[in-house]
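Re: Re: ligand-bound prediction request (bumping)

Still looking for help on this. To restate: I need the protein modeled with NAP bound, output as structure tokens. Inputs repeated here so nobody has to scroll up.
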Amino acid sequence: MRKLIAGMKISVDGKTEGSQGMADWVAAWSEDYGLTSRIDACLLGGGMYPGYEGYWSGIQNEPDKPHWITGEPPTPAEIEWARFAAQTPHYVLSSTLTSALWPKTRFVRKLDEVAALKRQSGKDIYLVGGARTTASLIDAGLVDELRLIVYPLIAGQGKELFKTSEHRRGLELRKVQQLDGGRLSLIYEMG
Ligand SMILES: NC(=O)c1ccc[n+]([C@@H]2O[C@H](COP(=O)([O-])OP(=O)(O)OC[C@H]3O[C@@H](n4cnc5c(N)ncnc54)[C@H](OP(=O)(O)O)[C@@H]3O)[C@@H](O)[C@H]2O)c1
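Reply:
Sorry for the wait, this slipped through. Here it is.
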């Protein structure tokens, strides 16, 4: 069975974005969880998909142009992810969205379809977010691993990763690593 692996960048107080609807403390949105070589599909929520597709298409089309979040050109790792993402199947959990620009994007209407995706042959699947989708898939017992990068700040106002979680769930810590800039990488297996 393919694993579904969630990766999220959060503040110490568990926020995925600040009060302006953006995690402006995250300098780059590259895939920094060590997943790219072991996945061949991405799953994400309808809330984030349109912005995500536009963001990575922009970087792929104009890799030298400063992007609007940081005002800096994309990093080499972001350019690498932009290329990888555009050619990798993306499954979008949504009951409302019906069209996407990327030809390999498919819409998933029910959690049963996520379970079926995991039963297909292939490499693991990266659950890109956002917060509501990650919390709901963890509640449904469909996530196998949770990879967090914790940024050294208390964001205060903003969107909490687990705000909509309904069930208590134990986690087994598999790896801890200190990253540059005071960030911490945590890998948990779902208990
Ligand atoms: N910090 C990070 O690492 C990180 C990572 C990813 C995203 N983000 C941020 O997170 C924000 C988006 O997160 P979000 O929580 O607002 O939205 P989201 O999780 O991207 O999407 C929520 C939508 O997904 C669909 N959905 C979720 N669970 C479902 C279920 N069980 N069954 C059916 N459909 C389901 C619904 O779409 P329909 O309403 O269409 O049915 C729901 O409205 C963005 O601003 C993005 O920048 C941060």
